[in-house]
């Protein structure tokens, strides 16, 4: 949830770019100090751009056009791939559709223009794939996104642990994500019946819970400029952070939050 282009109590795009770059470099330094990994998954959990289709106010508060938002997030994720590709034997870049990145015909949640894959975040994913393919030094980098009518996907790691990814908005509230995960698993949607771990964003705070037969539900924090509207209406806020953790033997563990310097 970088929400590039958003202006709020923690600043604008300049502050977002610096914050994200600092966080990515901090995580990469830790991975390098650990000697690298067999496999790394970079997960874009959605809302990488702020967009203009969620509220009327975005037209007055955003400091970047939609095309410039896309250019910035392309650069940030390209830098992330450059940072992490030398630190592993296989690198995945995963993206999922989201509410802020959906292409819309107007303002509001019911104005989605097309299928879920009509999404600026997925455009960034496919654009990066075009840049990376056929480059020998990046031959171990792969890209993944949900199928056209799906809004989640599941990846199997080297050791056989299956990890699901979704934005989180379809659950309606954070307290309902576990039951949404259960429903999708029972319906055999997006391969989530195989997943031991589900990772999502959208709710802007870090959290871990268990559901079913020891399946992990992991909520990632946001790296955006804050939400003064939410904070002034609820009193709740969270400090921007980037989450990293390990997955092995069908478990998620070794959580680490990197905060801005």
In terms of quaternary structure, what is this?
A: single chain
Shape label: globular
Number of strands: 10
Computed over alpha carbons, the radius of gyration is 17 Å
Average residue pLDDT: 96
Total helices: the number is 6
What's the end-to-end separation, in Å? 18 Å
Q: Give the ordered list of helices and strands.
A: HEHHEHEEEHEEEHEE
Estimate the strand proportion: 15-25%
What composes the largest sheet? 5 strands, mixed
Strand order of the largest sheet: 4-5-6-8-7
Describe it.
- This protein is of the alpha/beta class and about 260 residues long.
- About 30% of the residues lie in helices and about 25% in strands.
- The chain is built from six helices and ten strands.
- Strands 4-5-6-8-7 form a five-stranded mixed sheet, covered by helices on one side.
- A hairpin with a 5-residue loop joins strand 4 and strand 5 (about 160-165).
- Helix 3 crosses helix 4.
- The longest helix has 21 residues, at about 15-35.
- It starts with 12 loop residues before the first helix and ends with a strand.
- The model has no long low-confidence stretch (mean pLDDT about 95).
């Amino acid at each position: 949830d970088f929400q590039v282009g958003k202006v709020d109590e923690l600043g604008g795009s300049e502050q977002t770019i610096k914050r994200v770059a600092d966080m990515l470099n901090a995580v990469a330094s830790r991975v390098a100090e650990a000697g690298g990994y067999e496999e790394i998954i970079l997960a874009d959990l959605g809302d990488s751009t702020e967009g203009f289709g969620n509220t009327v106010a975005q037209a007055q508060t955003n400091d970047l056009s939609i095309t410039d938002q896309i250019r910035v997030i392309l650069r940030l994720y390209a830098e992330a791939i450059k940072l992490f590709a030398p630190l592993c034997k296989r690198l995945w870049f995963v993206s999922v559709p989201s509410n802020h990145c959906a292409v819309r015909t107007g303002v509001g949640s019911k104005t989605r223009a097309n299928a879920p894959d009509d999404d600026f975040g997925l455009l960034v994913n496919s654009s990066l794939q075009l840049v990376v393919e056929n480059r020998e030094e990046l031959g171990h980098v792969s890209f993944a996104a949900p199928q056209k009518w799906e809004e989640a996907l599941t990846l199997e790691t080297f050791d056989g642990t299956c990890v699901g990814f979704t934005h989180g908005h379809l659950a309606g509230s954070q307290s309902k994500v576990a039951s949404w995960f259960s429903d999708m698993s029972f319906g055999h949607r997006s391969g989530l019946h195989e997943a031991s771990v589900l990772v999502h964003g959208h709710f802007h705070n870090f959290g871990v819970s268990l559901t079913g037969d020891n399946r992990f539900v992991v909520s990632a924090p946001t790296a955006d400029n804050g939400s003064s509207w939410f904070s002034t209406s609820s009193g709740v806020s969270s400090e921007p952070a980037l989450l990293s953790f390990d997955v092995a033997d069908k478990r998620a563990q070794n959580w680490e939050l990197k905060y801005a310097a």
